[in-house]
Structure formats: C-alpha cells, structure tokens
Amino acid sequence: MSNTFYGSIHAFRGIAIATIVAAHTWAFLIFWTGKVDSPSINWVYAITETLFHGSTLYFALISGLLFSLVLQHKGWRRFASSKVKFVLLPYCVFTLLCTWLYWDFTRQASPEAEPLPTVLAGLVQGSASVQLWYIPLLFGLFVLTPLLVWLQQRGPWMLLVIGVLPLCISRSAFPDLLSWQTLVYFAGAYALGMLWGAHYLRVIRWLQRFQWQLLGLVLLTSGAVGWSYLQGHTQEGFWFYRQSLIYVQKLAAAALLLGWLESRAQSLVWARRLGDYAFAIFFLHVLVLDRFYFGVYDWLMTNRTGLTLAWLGLFNLAWTLLGSLALAWLIRTIGGRYSRMLVGV
Q1: What is d(CA 70, CA 78) in angstroms, rounded to the nearest whole number?
Q2: Which GO terms describe its biological process (predicted)?
Q3: Confidence at residue 177, expressed as pLDDT on a 0 to 100 scale
Q4: Residue 24 and residue 313: Cα distance in Å, rounded?
Q5: Rounded distance between C-alpha atoms, residue 307 and residue 96, angstroms
Q6: Which residue, of 114, 194, 209, 229, has the greatest Cβ tally within 10 A?
Q7: Taking 80 as the threshold, does the pLDDT of residue 3 lie above it?
Q8: pLDDT at residue 48 above 90?
Q9: CA dihedral in degrees (328, 334, 335, 339; nearest 10)?
Q10: Cα separation of 215 and 121, whole Å?
C-alpha cells in the first residue's frame, strides 16, 4: 500500500474519531441533564444527531479497508495476534478501569452487584462504559472475516449483498446496542470496506468523478434524517427507516471524504494527528468528557436552553478531543512500546 492512500485513510480515521466524540458531547449534555423538552433543544438534538449519530460506521468501513489493503497479506495468525494484543488487551484494561471508576454508580443502580460478575459482564457486553459496546461487536466482525473472505473469493457480488442488508435490517436502539441486527448492520459497512480495499485506487478514481452526486446524496439523506428527529420518530422492531438513511448518509460521506482526502491528506495535520491516536481517544474520551460534565452540571441545570447546550457542546468537543489527545500522548510517552497494549496507541 502506498503512502498516498494510506495517508488519506489515516486522515479519515482522524475525522471519524472526531465525529464519534462529537456524537457523545452533545447527547451526554442533553440526556444527562434531562430530556428533549423544548423546541430549541429539539433543534440542537436533531442537528447534532443528524451530523454525528452512526459515525461508528466509519470505523467499521476503515477496518474493512485496512484488512484488504494490509492485514490480509500478513496471514491469519498475524491478524489474530494483532487483534488480541492491540484491541482485546486495551479493552480489558479499560473495562477494569471503568468498572472501578464507576463502581459507586453501579452499586447505586444495583446494590447486589459484585465486582467479578460485573467485570465479566462488562467484557462480554461492552457495558463498562457507554462507548465500549463497539469492541465486542468489532470482535464479531473479526470472527466473520474468514467467512467474508471466502464469499469474496467466490464472487464480489456476495459482499455487495451483505453491504445492502442494512437497508432492510437496522441496528438495535439504545440501550440494547448489541444484537444480531447491529452485527448485520456494521458487517455491511465492513464488507463494503473489504470490497473497496481490494480495488482501492480504481474505486477512488471512480468516486472522484461523482463528487457532486455524492454531496447531493449526503445532503438529501441528512435532510431526511434531520426531519425524522424533529418529528420525534422512534424505532420499533428490527427495521427503522432512519437507520437505513443514516447508513447511506455515512457511507456516502465516507466516499466523498476519502476521494477528497486522496490529494489533500498531507496538509491536514490535525486530522493525521487525531488519526495517530484515534483508538486511544475512543477508549479515553468518555472519561475526559465526564470531567467536563461534572464540572458544569450544577450551572447547566439552571441555564438549560438550546443555545446554551449548542455552544457548551462545542466547548465540550474541543475539551474532550484535546484532553483525550494529551492523556493518550502522556500514556504513550510513559508506556513506550507497551502503551499500544494498554491504550491502543
């Protein structure tokens, strides 16, 4: 893989982690202090959810891309060992850390809770912190990878079929984030990433011919998603039209961004820096976000308006990204070559 398109994917990973953090910064401020109970707050919620909800799809797409471009050529043993050392170990570390940090809250919610069963449940369910649900799901994608490779070898169209399944099978709604539907939903993006990675430059050149059409698709689906939030529509059953729209929106945005980044990634220093620390930021950002939330909670409870939540969310986003980046850098500096097994960087 050449440095040029590795740089574009790396910069895209930086943008992806910023959007994942952004999805939490406003949602936490809104729902940890109340609910969507005014028109102005509804607008803030609708806009931020339209822009950022579902951004974890970017990570699934990137994982598929990098498997085809890099990991597939290193063999299954290397693939498995890298996931154990650099995904599973940091996940175990953070599950233990978050269980300890949030133990008082756990006992308040469930007085009969015991440490060991709580840790084990956290590992299986990704429930030790709100963002960790994605790691068990990611391991589900890793387990499916040999099957997806087998299907790809028998016909690329098979991965295309898997890639369109999320249009009729939606991820399950919060708080029950882990389910067979969610696995199918993210497997679609992962499979498309694998297929794209097998023909990366050819697909990029093709997508660059349709940038305006992709932009139109992003805007059209974003408008429909935003309207559904403003109307207060909620999910019932295994299919919800908004999740299908978000799937199309995020994949179209990814295609647009990767095509644009192909010739611009080297100039986006901030995106490449976030890309360097993306996995560590994923693990750390909720801990940093918590500090901000507890610091402003009392004041926000008496000044809770849409405008206040809007600008406070921007400040929260900057604080969380910079704080997570600084903390990850510190751990990397102290931990040296072991830091990747501790924090993913």
Answers
A1: 11
A2: enterobacterial common antigen biosynthetic process
A3: 87
A4: 9
A5: 37
A6: 194
A7: no
A8: yes
A9: 10
A10: 42
- CA 146 remoteness from chain centre: 23
Give the list of residues 6+ apart from residue 271 with CB closer than 8 angstroms, or none: 11, 12, 14, 15, 18, 261, 265
Question: Residue 1 has what pLDDT?
Answer: 42
CB atoms within 10 A of CB 244: 18
Instruction: Report the residue count for the chain.
Output: 345
Q: Is-contact 41 30, C-beta < 8 A? A: yes
Please determine, for residue 2, whether its predicted confidence score (pLDDT) is greater than 50. Answer: no
Residue pLDDT, tens place only, 174-226: 888 899 999 999 999 999 999 999 999 999 999 999 999 999 999 999 999 99
The secondary structure of the chain, three-state, reads CCHHHHHHHHHHHHHHHHHHHHHHHHHHHHHCCCCCCCHHHHHHHHHHHHHHCCCHHHHHHHHHHHHHHCHHHHCHHHHHHHHHHHHHHHHHHHHHHHHHHCHHHHHHHCCCCCHHHHHHHHHHHCCCCCCCCHHHHHHHHHHHHHHHHHHHHHCHHHHHHHHHHHHCCCCCCCCCCCCHHHHHHHHHHHHHHHHHHHCHHHHHHHHHCCHHHHHHHHHHHHHHHHHHHHCCCCCCCCCCHHHHHHHHHHHHHHHHHHHHHCCCHHHCHHHHHHHHCHHHHHHHHHHHHHHHHHHHHHHHHCCCCHHHHHHHHHHHHHHHHHHHHHHHHHHHHHHHHHHHHHHCC
Tokens of 14: 């930086």
Q: What is the mean pLDDT of residues 333-341?
A: 91
How large is the average pLDDT for residues 147-165?
96
Q: Please check the confidence at residue 101 and state whether its pLDDT lies above 50.
A: yes
